[in-house]
Amino acid sequence: MTPSTSMMQPVPRLVDQFERGLDAPICLTWELTYACNLSCVHCLSSSGKRDPRELSTRQCMDIIDELERMQVFYVNIGGGEPTVRPDFWELVDYATAHHVGVKFSTNGVRITPEVAAKLAASDYVDVQISLDGATAEVNDEVRGPGSFAMAVRALENLAAAGFRDAKISVVVTRHNVDQLDHFKALADQYGATLRITRLRPSGRGADVWDELHPTSAQQVQLYDWLVAHGERVLTGDSFFHLSGLGEPGALAGLNLCGAGRVVCLIDPVGDVYACPFAIHDRFLAGNILRDGGFDRVWKHAPLFRELREPQSAGACSSCNHYDSCRGGCMAAKFFTGLPLDGPDPECVQGYGEPALAAERDKPRSSVDHSRSGGRKAPIPLKLLTIPPKKFCNESPV
Amino acid sequence: MDAAAFDPDRGWRLHPQVAVRPESFGALLYHFGTRKLSFLKNTTILTVVNSLEDHPDARSALRAAGIDDDRQAPYLHALGVLVSSNMLVRKEMP
Questions:
Q1: Stretch 43-102 of chain A: residues touching chain B, C-beta under 8 Å
Q2: ipTM > 0.90, yes or no
Q3: Residues A197 and A235: beta-carbon distance below 8 Å
Q4: A6, B41: Cβ pair inside 8 Å?
Q5: Which residues in B lie closer than 8 A to residue A20 (C-beta atoms)?
Q6: Close Cβ partners of A359 (under 8 Å, ≥ 6 residues apart)
Q7: What's the pLDDT tens digit per position in A66-95?
Q8: Among A198, A201, A202, which Cα is nearest to A218's?
Q9: Closest C-alpha among A25, A84, A3 to residue A301
Q10: A323: closest CA among A259, A258, A244?
């Protein structure tokens, strides 16, 4: 987001207005399927197996119609791996024909030369290729064997087809934070833009967060790199918890938690959560099918109304930096077992560390579509094209 | 095109790929081509942006919205920013 038009009348800051919520989200994330050919160790949606209740093509189109009426300009489509849905391209075409732009995240599995050529011909589709290491060694440790080669092949196909400005989407970890320049060079090589986001302890990320999240020294390194590279690198506003490390405004973006206020998540079965990193009953606002549509859930869900009320700074209220970091990320606190009205686990003032060292109870989400039996090479996709008739026995749902 | 290229004595209009969503504070602007989002932070500038097309030049759109010449500077700056991000284009351009 680039707020660029400065204005004249003394009006409340945009951030303050956004914290009270808008009539429609600015953008939203829509995970079309929990099915995935990979099984990344940090998957924030614990994806793997398709959910038998997955929304049908018709149901998805109805949601797109509603988003068009609400003037939601674009959706960030993810998963799972969204391109394994047999109707994926049909839904992308339907959305763009209805003035809902599409940015989709993919591991690259379906970005063949033919698909790349089709994508290059559309003005309304943006592609994000996920990569969590600038080398196969670092990437495949997190995303699985062969996933680096798969992503690079997709980037090559997009570049060869003349697709301009694809995004390379990187979750910053302890092991790739030293590769930021390398990622930037990779992006430049493919005419792409680098997008880096924060590792959240959400989904399977809860299991690996302690080992993978950047150290406090690395947080400073990351902050300095972001300030130096500023507007040319996208962040999805995900590092606002670092803004206390420097002058207000040094980090590009709005620097606020938009959960339930300007963003939200629609999951593959139509459940609406406050944000993509908060798949848990605590942050479930409602269901599009059962609760009268997306517009109704967005405007009237008790959870969202609560999030649009002024939030308590709690233990952070005496901290000078509260105004810049706003207490950090709700999901990061929740899934590390910290109180929501206290410091972020990666608080740059160091208040997170003693909180993490204390006794805590980490909540597990009841939504888990991980495949059992550990990780193997990417699995053959034909297994996934038909939804299972019923939940697999090992599913805890 | 940079902001300096904004000439308020010429006619301007929204880029055909820009969508405007009115909000209580003003409006959100989204450019489907550049995929950039902008904010109009009050309703007066929204009125101006929406009416540009009906006026021969930007200054007359501002006057019609009740902004006298001596108060136009911040609005001209805002329009210049929108021109530099390609949200607004010259009327005679495709």
A1: 71, 73-74, 99, 101
A2: no
A3: yes
A4: yes
A5: none
A6: none
A7: 999 999 999 999 999 999 999 999 999 999
A8: A198
A9: A25
A10: A244
